[in-house]
Write a structure and sequence with these properties.
The protein is of the alpha/beta class. It has two domains: about 100 residues, 3-Layer(aba) Sandwich (Rossmann fold); about 80 residues, Rossmann fold (3-Layer(aba) Sandwich), CATH 3.40.50.170. The protein contains six helices and seven strands, in the order E-H-E-H-E-H-E-H-E-H-E-E-H. It has a seven-stranded mixed β-sheet, sandwiched between helices. Helix 1 packs parallel to helix 6. It is globular and about 50 Å long. Bound molecules: 5-O-phosphono-beta-D-ribofuranosylamine (GRF). The site of 5-O-phosphono-beta-D-ribofuranosylamine has 13 residues, from helix 1, strand 5 and helix 6.
């Protein structure tokens, strides 16, 4: 594939989904190229990945949402970014920012949406004794974790499941469905 879509990934922490996207994007036929990584956290491990894989990155603090979004939009426009992937980005984006991007923003969430939107997903799932959990890739809209679903993967919750084991089990699936979702939206 010659014309890969220029993309940006927003992160806040570990960056394991970022890593899976970087790896996939190195495949010749993968539809996007990651041209920019933006973090609101200077200590995010994902920034180490940006350095390792030689991908341009920026840290913008999030003390003021408006400033973070303005800084990010400037970089995004400079680089002619057409798709924005949120990967463990722990902040909410404003309606204006999302509109500005014409809704070409996708996110991964560690639950079977529309169930368990928001934070602390795994502990809430375990408390309500769900039989299954999973992960979802969806388009981002101003209402949190509510946009159109692109792909979901279900996992079975074991009897002795802990928050940590569930998180790891779901992350393994996240690393598969995020790249698959991107392939599917370009089909
Ligand atoms: C993932 O579980 C993702 O679904 C959620 O935050 C976590 C980030 O993990 N939004 P990582 O930073 O990609 O390792």
């Amino acid at each position: 594939m010659v014309n890969k879509t220029k993309s940006c990934v927003f992160i806040s922490g570990k960056g394991s989904n970022l890593k899976s996207l970087i790896k996939s994007s190195r495949d010749y036929n993968f539809p996007i190229k990651i041209e920019l990584i933006i973090s609101n956290n200077i200590k995010a491990n994902g920034l180490k990945l940006a350095k390792k894989y030689n991908i341009p990155f920026k840290f913008f603090p999030y003390d003021k949402q408006e400033k973070f979004e303005r800084n990010s939009l400037l970089e995004i426009k400079k680089k002619n970014i057409k798709l924005l992937c949120l990967a463990g980005f722990m902040k909410v984006l404003s309606k204006n920012f999302i509109k500005n991007f014409r809704y070409k923003i996708i996110n991964i969430h560690p639950s079977l949406l529309p169930k368990f939107k928001g934070l602390n997903t795994h502990s809430r799932v375990l408390k309500t004794k769900e039989k299954y959990s999973g992960c979802t890739v969806h388009f981002v809209t101003p209402s949190v974790d509510s946009g159109k679903i692109i792909l979901q993967k279900r996992v079975l919750i074991n009897k002795n499941e802990t928050e940590n084991s569930l998180k790891e089990k779901i992350l393994r699936q996240e690393h598969k469905i995020y790249p698959q979702s991107i392939i599917s939206i370009f089909k």
